[in-house]
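Cross-posted from the bioinformatics board.
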Amino acid sequence: AQKITQTQPGMFVQEKEAVTLDCTYDTSDPSYGLFWYKQPSSGEMIFLIYQGSYDQQNATEGRYSLNFQKARKSANLVISASQLGDSAMYFCASRRGGRRALTFGSGTRLQVQP
Amino acid sequence: DAGVTQSPTHLIKTRGQQVTLRCSPKSGHDTVSWYQQALGQGPQFIFQYYEEEERQRGNFPDRFSGHQFPNYSSELNVNALLLGDSALYLCASSPSQGAGETQYFGPGTRLLVL
C-alpha cells in the first residue's frame, strides 16, 4: 500500500515570504501521480498541483511549484510570496498507476502572518 | 463552469439510522469518488464509480454503499450509522483520462451521528 508522510503538523510564514511544505511517499510502482490540495476551514479540498512520476520537469502552477526528487521519494510544495489567504491545511496525496484511489498524508497547517 | 456540488451541506442523524449523500460531478467528468475525513485527519478513500459501476473500493464495511446514475451523479448510502461515522464526506470527480485523472472535490457534507 502507498504511504504519504507529512512531518510538519504546523508551519508559520511571514506574508510575502516563500515556504516549503514537506512530503515523502512510499511506493514501489514505477507509475504514480502526486498531488497537493489546500483545505481552508470551509472544508473544500482545492486542487493545487500535479506531478506525474515520468514528468521530467518539476510542476509549476502560478505561485505553487512542486520540488520533485524521485530518488529521495519526496514531493515538496513550494509556495512563493505567501499571502494571508494561503492560511489553510495542505495535503499531499498520491495515486498509484492503474489504481484510482488517492492516498493522503496527515496534512500541514500553514499560518501566514502579516 | 459548475464545479462539484454536494448535498446536503450538514446532516444530523442518530445511531442506527440510514443516510444518503448526493454528489454532482464537474462538467465533463464521468468518474466519482467518495472520501471520509474524520476530524484532524486526511481523507480516506471509500469507493469510486465509473460507468455506473463500483470500480475500486477502500477499506470500508458493507454498510457503505453507493450508486452512480447515467448523468454521472452519485449517491453514498450509509446504513446502521455508528458514532464513528461522524465525519466530513467529500465527493470528488475526475475525467477517466488525461492530466493524471486529477480529482476535483466538492464542498463536502458534514455528518454528525448522535
